[in-house]
């Protein structure tokens, strides 16, 4: 049992997946999951809808999970929703890891998180995420980068999720954490609403090849985020007003109205990718 490990070392160790190499020790992550699960069940009575859509990828291939970002609790619920069977490797802001003299970095690294530089093309983080996906792990990304409605920054979508999914040859799985934004609102007391985590259907980067090459990654991430907001608002995707949500971003509504993206289930995608990887391994 390793009590202290350099967290920089844990960023490059597998956590779950198919690798036979030494993994990030599980004991701390399991203790944190057990504690948070009990507390959050009591406080928020949370449930997970369509968990089978993430379970389908277990042992078959990696997957990038994306979600809209409304609360500081989003990451905690994303983590809880996959446990105890699967782990999520979160991309977190680099400055989080040095808080409390590195203690926060130890906790985050133990549950699978690794750092990314904000507003920059962080090649090291991209390589780590790609390696994790190829090992059959889950990588969690919040493409908005920061919580919606916090500060003066205009919301925007970063296309890194689609780029990482493409590099790792993995699908993107949209999800949402519904009602977490009501836990702590400015000027109001702490509240304990019932929270629901819900997964959507997977999105494949190659389904966006009809777009010009320079627009494919942005269009794919935009589409996945629209799926997240449709889950959050419980409306059909066509009713999500992405122009209002991202007023300064590129809008793809008309392109997808003219060219609908194929609908696939997690089971279909996971089976196809699992077979393809097995065949590739057999040829190696």
Describe this structure in words.
This protein has about 280 residues and is of the alpha/beta class. The protein has one domain: Glycerol-3-phosphate (1)-acyltransferase. About 40% of the residues lie in helices and about 10% in strands. It has helices spanning about 5-10, 25-45, 50-55, 75-80, 105-110, 125-135, 160-165, 215-235, 240-245, 255-260, 265-284; strands at about 45-50, 65, 90-95, 115, 140, 170-180, 195-200. It has a seven-stranded mixed sheet, sandwiched between helices. α6 (about 125-135) packs across α7 and α7 (about 160-165) crosses α8 (about 215-235). The longest helix has 19 residues, at about 25-45. The two termini are about 35 Å apart. The mean pLDDT is about 90.
């Amino acid at each position: 049992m390793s009590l202290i490990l350099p967290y920089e070392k844990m960023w490059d160790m597998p956590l779950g997946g198919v690798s036979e190499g030494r993994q990030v020790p599980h004991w701390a992550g399991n203790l944190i999951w057990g504690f948070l699960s009990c507390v959050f069940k009591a406080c928020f009575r949370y449930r997970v809808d369509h968990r089978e859509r993430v379970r389908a990828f277990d042992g078959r291939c990696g997957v990038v999970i994306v979600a809209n970002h409304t609360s500081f609790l989003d990451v905690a619920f994303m983590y809880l929703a996959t446990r105890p069977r699967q782990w999520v490797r979160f991309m977190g802001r680099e400055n989080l890891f040095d808080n409390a003299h590195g203690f926060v970095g130890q906790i985050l690294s133990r549950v699978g998180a690794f750092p990314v530089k904000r507003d920059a093309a962080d090649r090291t983080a991209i390589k780590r995420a790609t390696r994790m996906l190829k090992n059959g792990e889950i990588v969690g990304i919040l493409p908005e980068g920061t919580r919606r409605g916090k500060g003066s920054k205009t919301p925007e979508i970063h296309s890194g999720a689609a780029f990482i999914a493409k590099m790792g040859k993995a699908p993107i799985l949209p999800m949402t954490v519904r009602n977490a934004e009501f836990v702590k609102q400015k000027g109001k007391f702490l509240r304990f609403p019932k929270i629901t985590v819900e997964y959507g259907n997977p999105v494949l980067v190659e389904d966006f090849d009809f777009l010009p090459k320079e627009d494919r990654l942005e269009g794919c991430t935009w589409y996945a985020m629209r799926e997240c907001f449709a889950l959050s608002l419980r409306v059909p995707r066509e009713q999500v007003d992405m122009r209002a949500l991202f007023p300064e971003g590129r809008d793809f509504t008309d392109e997808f109205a003219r060219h609908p993206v194929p609908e696939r289930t997690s089971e279909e995608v996971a089976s196809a990718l699992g077979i393809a990887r097995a065949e590739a391994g057999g040829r190696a």
